[in-house]
User: Fold this.
Amino acid sequence: MPKKNGSDKRIQILEALNRCLQNKPFDKTSIKEIARAADVNHGLLHYYFKSKEDILIQYIDYVIDHYRSMVKERFNDKELENIDIKKLIEEFFMFTHDRITLDRSLSKVFIEIWEIAVYHPAVKAKLQRAYQEWMDVLSNMLKPLNNDIDLSRRTSFATVAFLEGMALFSIILDTDSKEFKTILSDFQSKIIDML
Amino acid sequence: MPKKNGSDKRIQILEALNRCLQNKPFDKTSIKEIARAADVNHGLLHYYFKSKEDILIQYIDYVIDHYRSMVKERFNDKELENIDIKKLIEEFFMFTHDRITLDRSLSKVFIEIWEIAVYHPAVKAKLQRAYQEWMDVLSNMLKPLNNDIDLSRRTSFATVAFLEGMALFSIILDTDSKEFKTILSDFQSKIIDML
Amino acid sequence: MPKKNGSDKRIQILEALNRCLQNKPFDKTSIKEIARAADVNHGLLHYYFKSKEDILIQYIDYVIDHYRSMVKERFNDKELENIDIKKLIEEFFMFTHDRITLDRSLSKVFIEIWEIAVYHPAVKAKLQRAYQEWMDVLSNMLKPLNNDIDLSRRTSFATVAFLEGMALFSIILDTDSKEFKTILSDFQSKIIDML
Amino acid sequence: MPKKNGSDKRIQILEALNRCLQNKPFDKTSIKEIARAADVNHGLLHYYFKSKEDILIQYIDYVIDHYRSMVKERFNDKELENIDIKKLIEEFFMFTHDRITLDRSLSKVFIEIWEIAVYHPAVKAKLQRAYQEWMDVLSNMLKPLNNDIDLSRRTSFATVAFLEGMALFSIILDTDSKEFKTILSDFQSKIIDML
DNA sequence: CATGAATGAGTTTTCATTCAT
DNA sequence: GATGAATGAAAACTCATTCAT
Assistant:
């Protein structure tokens, strides 16, 4: 669904918030700052959103949906059905690394969302659903290789946990980028080998 | 006159903050709330700490030091020198799982600290040091097994990333506790096997 | 839509401060008191001014500009060019006495501004400029009478110092008003005679 | 009355306040700052003084008494009775210029006291008494020269006003020190000539 | 839809003052 | 006389939210 640029002030505001979150946590970002970043009048934010919290919720939905649809587009296609499963998993990892784990701007935002989720049940539920989906996609790929549903599920869980840990460390630790990628792909090949 | 009562008001306040952080993020916790939780007058917080931020910084130091010393006590002992290295690593994982990864109250706090670190260079630096130490301890244990410093370092990095991802998921996902522990110990044995 | 009402809230607030300063020094006047005197919500003061200090600075500018323009209007006119110089000086003193030195409300405010200037370089600079202008106007009037620039400048300096001392005493000492005016006009005639 | 150094904590505190007032107005100087400057515990200030305001009042008394006694010592002596009156007045001006008008630290403090006096009747009364005494001393010197009590009083009033205006300008305007002294002594000789 | 003035609750912080030891 | 912990009132300032235009 290509958004006609500027046609939707709502999206414009959510993207402004995304930019703001690169510099400050949500709680320290005022509605006026978001408005300024979105280049709209601050009063207008209350026309499109019923409260500051509502902006946050819609923003989180927006981010999660964005990545959910990215994954869906790439891996739910029919054409993938005939592909070699190991190759598919490899592609999945490549995609995940490049588009998610190594996207620093996204990782920053996710650390923020984690923290919000800890204290905010509705946000927590959203995250749970998103992670569940992610694990399910991976789990379904692993199943054919070992024919053990539980093991596949546990392996997916561990893998996603590892990836999120790596996303965290990509922001918190100032690790050399080459080293970081080596660790990521080492792990990936070990997972594949193990199966 | 030994200052027996009142001498530990500082700790009392930091522990009150720890309790507060189980319910609310730091930014939404007012100084008066911390004071109430610590059962002291709110003005006193500014007697012991120069600002709200100072409370946070001292709290983070307190938490990190607490765990650092726990690890130091357990694994820097001479007696460990003669122990079987595989057994030592196993013990290290058991310790880490029980005292850190599975401590939900601690994990909650750490998600909060991660978020703060993203936007706060001094806090980030503290985290970096703590994680580095943790990785170094593990790395030093792995080295004798594979004689490859770089591999040991990367394995430690991946392991700690995985553990932090698991800590995150212990809070964010409502996973069955048994399943969670299984994933944790599966991973541990795979690591050990690999070496 | 011409902003007729509300457009002058800024002036309204500065004039409220002027009234407040008749009763209390600036530091003892709270923002809420100024707001009450201006009959506006206290939050609004932070909408029009970025801080309490900013109110003060803008107030001082307002006061100084007010008097500067009063003097400019009266003495920078072309028509003055042909007038008898002694008469002009006489008029200048009359104007100064009536509109400045004998304006008790203004003198009160100026004593406050002096004190602030002592510790506040930016305010000090504003005062310096204002006094310099005042001395220059007078100096330019005296010059034709004695053809000595330095003497004119020194006489102006002394005169303005005297007038400010008198303004101070009009507030601090409870001198009989008639006596006070006599001293003022005695001095004026002596200055004129001397030249 | 030589004060045995350190024997009188009260004086020690008042002199600390004097030092503080070189940097900050009284209202912005905290009791703890005064205590630190006096090198005494801040709780002690409330032993020697009943409130912060009491420190201020006693300080003002202390300053005024100090200068009153300086003048008294110098000009109330019998030996002055036989001296040439013009010479005496000259000495009086010299003394005043050197010890009061040109004492920048004192002038700073006096600007502060003026401002306090504006809003504080008791302080105002103290200042009135001090200025009255000063004018009386001068007036009594001038009387023999013109045999007009009223004129002498008015001349004294004007002279002291001028001197205080000059003290003000010595702090507020950054006038060249030589020029400043010239203005001061020019004025002095004109006064003397006039009589 | 858009604007920006207005509101008022809530936050951190300061600090004179008290008081037990 | 000293000390320094403790108290609580009051201050400046922020900001989400409302609303008239």
Notes: The first helix of chain C runs from residue 9 to 20.
